[in-house]
Design a protein that fits this description.
Strand order of the largest sheet of chain B: 4-3-2-1-7-6-5
CATH topology of one domain in chain B: Protein-Tyrosine Phosphatase, Chain A
Strand content of chain A: 15-25%
CATH class of one domain in chain B: Alpha Beta
Number of helices of chain A: 17
CATH superfamily of one domain in chain B: Protein tyrosine phosphatase superfamily
Number of helices of chain B: 21
Largest sheet of chain A: 7 strands, antiparallel
Number of domains of chain A: 2
Helix content of chain A: 25-40%
Structural class of chain A: alpha+beta
Helix content of chain B: 40-55%
Strand order of the largest sheet of chain A: 4-3-2-1-7-6-5
Number of strands of chain A: 14
Largest interface: A-B, 42 and 49 residues
Shape of chain B: globular
Radius of gyration of chain A: 26 Å
Oligomer: heterodimer
CATH architecture of one domain in chain B: Alpha-Beta Complex
Shape of chain A: globular
Distance between the termini of chain B: 66 Å
Number of strands of chain B: 14
Largest sheet of chain B: 7 strands, antiparallel
Radius of gyration of chain B: 27 Å
Structural class of chain B: alpha+beta
Chain lengths: ~500, ~575
């Protein structure tokens, strides 16, 4: 396929662009393989530089000799283009539709984007699981790094390396994998060094109607708990839904086969027990819960670097199907059953945490918004594909740039930092009362809410805090400048 | 003290409404002014103080296994749920609180017994702190068109107005007196705020006694005088803040609203803000939502929606934005009234002034504003707050709504206010506590931008609030900075003594900088002169305000400005 075949009209003169809260601009509209551009006439400023992948839905309305195209973007922006000429208008609309619906991964923009400031391999191996395991092994010897999935044979949606109980061998693990949906056997997600409890995740067991059992799966979960110790299995589904899943081959862990585990379909409070989390597939709500729990428990996940590592480990490598879930967004009225805003839900939860603990996260709202934007449409390969296996097949890491590499450049990085951050070693227990939950205006009203005064406040905070850290250096700078300033006035006289 | 039969009860439990934490256990004391609960179960001594005048209701609930429950609701939205072991004790506390929380005579109010360690001179200074004449002076009054008159010195014109009022110079004594007979309770049109930049005035009054056809020449002359005091605009607005239906119903009682045909060049407009009874029941519903025990998200959101509270807040803010825009952008004078002109009118006049004038967004200015628009102009604090045992139908959260509107503005314009949420809560508390004498006696924003004010309505449910405060952090940053700079300047002052004078830096004085940094002063552009109106909309772009700041304030220039606005 050639992009040029999809572009029926590449340039339109005299198009009018409407954006919420900004004056209309008239100019030349261009469609390239991946972008929609508009440069204003006569000044020639580039007013619009939109990744076509960002377009969620295209609405067209023709009246008389011109037409209006409404673009509903995945980042929740709504743009309007007024295009002279009915045919031109229809051509532009169908070109945008076609280009935004290209679903071959290798045709996507990250495979073509080559920024001069970055090298391709940069950022891709920034957060190896080995490093996470190193920290873990200094705290406990109950877990080991397994390469049972090195060729993705045990579980196609897991990464090659996973952490499993030290007491079970790879054969057992491989057999247990066959008893779990999609092969997602229980793996370690987080270890809490304070009390030695662990957080695990998996998919549902394939108990089915006949109440099938699997000795290896029982053994795997059995070795995690000491004699007489009790663990919890949090099933993120309702009890009803879990029961129904048996009809289609899924189900839950029966008490009789897993005597040390207690199954729950609700949240629990500060029990200090080991917990296994799963829903059905274990790629959505499961990851949301385990990732959020770590952010609450572990201060190292709350730094900018640590949060990226958490995302890499608990969302990207853990096999959240980004390509399926984020193919379309809120405005799409198609019949896709795979699209779901699970990652947005996670980002919103993180934002709620940041509102309740404004000093405890090293990153700010801007990072969350950038992650949201990039999960849906990106110049970088980080959120492409559904799991590590697909990424390796498409050679994502060899042929695209990593978002992390770009974010962590010094001139970029400072934009995402929270000026008020100070390391907080404690667990940050949020309030979940309805009164404490707010609409995330920064995301949902981003394009329609005037932000000038809020930006001002942010800058003011930055200024105040930096004043503290650099007041001494400012002092010395002031001193150095004063003779020069004095000389200047003399010259003027 | 004669009301207190049991001053101390031990082994009293205080239930936590939200978290399923264990109930506190401790001792309850009754003093002449406060109920004090000391938590004995906590590691650190924890005290809960409830001012008797803050108590709005005391209820005895049915006996539980833990004992006799006593539920106390406060006017500052504190809800305390005690459980007392002995029925007798519970009953004693109950009857004492009933009496203590509802003083019958004004002398029983706390303000008369509150005795901070302050000299008589200081106390009198406090009362003189706010001089409304100074505020009028700030607006350039008296001037050619407006004068401060003591025509009401014997409360002859209007018993609920202050002795000194500001009226147009053109309005003679006969006009004032005549107009007062045509306005409900004699509350004639008086100046609330004059926008110096263009002479547009914000005036307030009560409804006219127009009935179906009555007219009053003096009242018509009064409005004409107000309109002509602003020669820049050929018309003036008359805004009735009530819903049209309510205003029409008043005509049957011989009151009502201005007939456009009888007054020269007025533009009449209704803005539907509901009356005090609707507001009272709305708050009641809101508080029920806030008190629900572990509500689901949709319980909460439906409850919030059904209470209508944010809808009413939006109505008040919309009206205020309309007034401010009329004055600033249309350069038109506005006369506002509701029924008596002391509730809705006070809300919208004070909010519009706050939008127009940055001074009112400072500590001092905000107090002046409250003094001017609420206290001096006769808002019935006593009735509305239920200070004394009186008619429950007179109680209404009019002032609470005003405070909340200010809070909503603070959310949208975080850098425009010198004070913080805490100051608002403090003022709100004092209004209901009668701890000080002041309150004794009688943006076109979209809806979704308005937030539920958890800090007010669930203020005492500690678990619900952000656990870290940005403000505290910033203040500690500032004070640290000041200390550092003081240290630095101290060291610098010592340098010459130790080393002898340095060659090129005779007298750099960081002192000045340090002093400037000591307090978070309001931003420069807000502090002086033609500051921008608080506005978020695209119609009042930043550009325009820069232009107007740069241009000399000539007539030609302003006219251009006005035309540009009309085109936009």
């Amino acid at each position: 396929m050639e992009f040029s075949e999809l572009i029926k009209t590449a340039t339109v003169e005299n198009a009018l662009l409407w954006r919420p809260g900004l004056p209309a601009v008239r100019g030349t509209l261009c469609i390239t393989s991946h972008h929609l551009l508009l440069s204003s006439r006569p000044r020639g400023d580039l007013e619009l530089w939109l990744l076509i992948r960002n377009v969620d839905a295209v609405e067209k309305r023709v009246c008389g000799s011109s037409g209006t195209i409404t673009l509903r973007c995945k980042d929740l922006r709504v743009l309007q283009l007024e295009i002279p000429g009915m045919e031109q208008c229809l051509n532009i609309a169908s070109s945008i539709e076609a280009l935004s619906s290209v679903d071959s991964v290798m045709m996507m923009y990250p495979f073509f984007y080559r920024p001069p400031s970055l090298r391709l391999e940069q950022g891709w191996h920034r957060f190896p699981l080995e490093r996470f395991f190193q920290r873990l092994s200094s705290q406990t010897s109950q877990w080991r790094l397994s390469t049972v999935n090195r060729d993705f044979s045990a579980c196609p949606s897991y990464p090659p390396a996973v952490i499993v109980p030290a007491a079970v061998g790879d054969d057992t693990v491989a057999k247990a994998a066959r008893f779990r949906q999609g092969g997602r056997f229980p793996v370690l997600s987080y270890f809490h060094p304070k009390n030695g409890t662990a957080l695990l995740r998996s998919s549902q067991p394939l108990t089915g109607r006949n109440r099938r059992r699997c000795r290896e799966d029982e053994q795997l979960l059995g070795t995690i708990l000491d004699q007489g110790e009790q663990g919890f299995i949090i099933d993120t589904r309702s009890a009803q839904a879990a029961k129904q899943a048996r009809m289609s081959g899924g189900g839950t862990e029966p008490k009789s086969s897993y005597p040390q585990w207690r199954r729950l379909h609700r949240a629990l409070e500060r029990e200090e027990r080991t917990v296994l989390v799963h829903g059905a597939e274990g790629t959505d709500a499961t990851l949301l819960v385990t990732a959020l729990a770590q952010l609450i428990l572990d201060p190292s996940c709350r730094s900018l670097e640590g949060f990226q590592g958490l995302l890499e480990r608990e969302w990207i490598e853990a096999g959240h199907p980004f390509q399926l879930r984020c193919a379309r967004s809120a405005s799409w009225h198609g019949r896709g059953k795979q699209e779901a805003p699970l990652f947005v839900l996670f980002l919103d939860c993180v934002w709620q945490l940041s509102r309740q603990f404004p000093l405890s996260l090293e990153f700010g709202e801007r990072l969350l918004l950038t992650l949201f934007d990039n999960a849906y449409a990106s110049a970088y390969g980080t959120f492409l594909c559904n799991n590590e296996r697909e990424r390796s097949l498409c050679k994502v890491k060899e042929s695209t740039h990593s978002l992390w590499a770009w974010l962590n450049q010094p001139e970029e990085k400072h934009k995402y930092l929270n000026p008020l951050y100070s390391h907080n070693p404690l667990v940050i227990w949020p309030s979940v009362e309805p009164q404490s939950i707010q609409l995330w205006q920064g995301l949902f009203l981003r394009w329609i809410r005037p932000s000038q005064h809020l930006d001002e406040a942010r800058e003011e905070i930055q200024r105040l805090v930096q004043g503290k850290n650099s007041s001494s250096s400012k002092e010395s700078r002031g001193r150095r400048q004063s003779p020069a300033a004095a000389a200047g006035t003399e010259g003027g006289r | 003290m004669e009301h207190i039969s049991t001053p101390k009860v031990e082994n009293v439990k205080l239930l936590d409404r939200y978290a399923n934490r264990k109930a506190a256990s401790g001792t309850l004391y009754l003093t002449a002014t406060h109920l004090i609960y000391v938590d004995a179960s906590a590691e650190v001594r924890k005290e809960t103080w409830i001012l008797h005048h803050h108590i709005s209701s005391v209820e005895k609930l049915p006996l539980t296994t833990a004992g006799y429950p006593l539920l106390i609701h406060c006017k500052n939205f504190h809800v305390a749920h005690f459980v007392i072991g002995q029925e007798r004790d519970c009953h004693d506390v109950f009857t004492s609180l009933l009496k203590l929380s509802q003083p019958v005579k004004p002398e029983e109010l706390y303000a008369f017994s509150y005795n901070p360690k302050m000299s008589k001179e200081n106390r009198e200074m406090g009362w003189k702190l706010i001089d409304l004449r100074l505020d009028y002076q700030r607006m350039g009054i008296p001037n050619d068109s407006w004068e401060i008159t003591d025509i009401n010195k014997d409360y002859e014109v209007c018993s609920t107005y202050p002795p000194e009022i500001v009226v147009p110079r053109a309005a003679t004594k006969a006009v004032v007196m005549g107009s007062s007979r045509f306005r409900s309770r004699g509350r004639i049109p008086v100046l609330s705020y004059l926008y110096k930049e263009n002479n547009a005035a914000l005036c307030r009054c009560s409804q006219p006694l127009a009935g179906f056809s009555a007219r009053c020449l003096e009242d018509e002359q009064m409005l004409q005088a107000i309109r002509q005091a602003n020669p820049g605009c050929p018309f003036m607005y008359v805004v009735d803040t009530r819903p049209k239906l309510n205003a029409m119903a008043n005509r049957a009682a011989g009151k009502g609203y201005e007939n456009e045909d009888n007054y020269e060049n007025i533009r009449f407009k209704f803005i539907g803000i509901e009356n005090i009874h609707v507001m009272r029941s709305s708050l009641q519903k809101l508080l029920e939502v806030c008190e629900m025990k572990s509500p689901s998200m949709s319980d909460f959101l439906t409850g919030l929606e059904n209470s209508g509270w944010l809808r009413h807040i939006k109505a008040v803010m919309d009206a205020s934005v309309f007034l401010a825009k009329a004055v600033k952008e249309e350069r038109a004078s506005v006369l506002v009234h509701c029924s008596d002109g002391w509730d809705r009118t006070a809300q919208v006049c004070s909010l519009a002034s706050l939008l127009l004038d940055p001074f009112y967004r400072t500590f001092k200015g905000f107090m002046v504003l409250i003094e001017k628009e609420w206290i001096a102009m006769g808002h019935k604090f006593s009735h509305r707050c239920g200070h004394l045992d009186g008619d429950p139908k007179e109680v209404s959260p009019v002032f609470t709504q005003f405070v909340e509107c200010v809070w909503q503005l603070m959310q949208q314009f975080p850098c425009s206010f010198e004070f913080s949420e805490r100051f608002l809560l403090e003022i709100h508390d004092h209004v209901y506590s009668c701890q000080f004498g002041n309150f004794l006696g009688t943006c076109h924003k979209e809806r979704e931008e308005l937030r539920f004010w958890c800090g007010m309505y669930n203020r005492f449910d500690k678990g619900m609030h952000p656990k870290q405060s940005v403000l505290d952090q910033l203040l500690s940053c500032l004070s640290q900075k000041v200390t550092l700079e003081d240290d630095a300047s101290d060291l610098e002052n010592k340098l010459p003594i130790l080393d002898g004078p340095l060659p090129s830096e005779g007298c750099t004085s960081p002192k000045a900088g340090a002093a400037a940094a000591k307090a978070p002063t309001p931003r420069q552009d807000c502090a002086e002169g033609a500051a921008p109106v608080l506005s978020n909309g695209p119609s009042l772009g930043h550009q325009k305000h820069k232009e107007s700041a740069a241009q000399p304030r000539g007539l030609g220039a302003s006219r251009e400005d006005g035309q540009a606005q009309h085109q936009g």
